[in-house]
Amino acid sequence: MAPATAKKPRKKNAPDKPMPEWLFPDDDKNPEWDQAVNFLQHKTVSAPLKPPPPALLLTLVGAFLTSYGFDSTSRIYTTQLSSRKKLDDWKPVLGEKLPKGFPDLVKVFKDWYKEYQERVHLDESSSDETTGDDGAKASASDSSSSISSSDSSPETSSSSSDFSTRSHTAGVPLSPSKRKRSASPPAPQPAVKKTRTPFQRVPKDTKVDAKLSSNAYVSHEYGDRAHQDLSVTRGKGFTKEKNRKKRGSYRGGAIGVGGGKGIKFED
Asked: How high is the pLDDT of residue 235?
């Protein structure tokens, strides 16, 4: 017997070959390395790529959740803050107490909302003043033009004075209470209903041969028995009776071989 040849062991690990430089370049040659690492770090802790909020604001939110009984939400909030510590720019302080006399989150929101309402009211009043100044300038220009026209034409002084008074009163802006309202839009008129005609494959005015004008059954010996049984059925009953007659046990009448049953179409 021939001696058994020893099998060469398979190499489990790949041979030590130098990796190409373009695959793993140095940090100095790869400016996007830091951006990729930063993105992956934020992705692992489900943090958006935004600058972190102030640490005092994070403490204020945690105190609000605890004081109002959001216990489960507060635990989740604390867990997420602890995971954000892995990031370099996030430095939350867990369990930190607010400074003495520092307002809570509700008080801070109320103060901010009050200032916001005052700022909005101030902006609205300033916009109303600007519209009033524009109206006054327009009225002054109209009055000056009316005076010059009255001096140049004494015969039409009465008509020009009436025109100047009308233009002067038209240029003065009305107060909000006396401001004229625009006319209400006209009521929409009801849409006219269109008469719908049912679909007809063959128009009514089409001339049809008298032999083809009716789909009534024309008696003949072979189909009389089937017509007698199937004409009284509808729907599933018709399908059931038809399938029964398709079997080999059904026999119709005699098949007529005489002519005269066809219809000749004349072009």
From this structure: 93
- What span, in angstroms and rounded, lies between the C-alpha atoms of 157 and 149? 8
Which stretches of the chain drop beneath a pLDDT of 70? 1-4, 9-15, 18-31, 131-183, 259-260, 267
pTM above 0.70, yes or no: no
pLDDT of residue 99: 80
- C-alpha atoms less than 13 angstroms from C-alpha of 186 in its C-beta half-sphere: 3
> Contact, 37 vs 30, CB < 8 A?
no
Per-residue model confidence (pLDDT) at position 236: 94
CA–CA gap between residue 252 and residue 229 (Å, rounded): 12
CA distance linking residue 45 with residue 47, whole number of Å: 6
Which among 139, 126, 135, 128 is positioned nearest to 173, based on CA atoms? Answer: 135
Distance of CA 124 to the CA centre of its chain: 32
